[in-house]
Amino acid sequence: MSNETNQVDRGSEKKTLVLAVIAGICGDAMLSWLTMSDVSFSIFPLIALVLAVQALYQEYLSKPVSEDIPLVGLACFFVGAFGHSAFIKAQYPEAGSNMFAIFVTLGLLAWIGKKVGFMERKAQTD
Hints:
The chain has helices at about 1-35, 45-60, 70-90, 100-115. It starts with a helix and ends in a 10-residue tail after the last helix. The protein contains 4 helices and no strands. It is flat and about 55 Å long. Keywords: Membrane, Transmembrane, Transmembrane helix. This is YijD family membrane protein.
């Protein structure tokens, strides 16, 4: 029984982290539109940002949050924001270098992978 509830909690945590990445991407898209003249306005990042934040809030209200998820969720938000920033700067090279954004994104992804457990070796069962 506890294994089933653990699976439900793990799925809820993944949903929270994906929503945090989406919120980061949309937030940086809105910021890019405000600060860069080359980026044109689109209503879709605003709609997606509102929906992602609303879903995050509903998830927070409905399910208990484990100890590490708020910090990992914040890191996922920054992964989305810095990843989108690197993408935009690759599209528009005159906007500046994307090296810092790529390094921050990769560093945060490595830290998130360690925290979530992707970098652990699985015990071999014989």
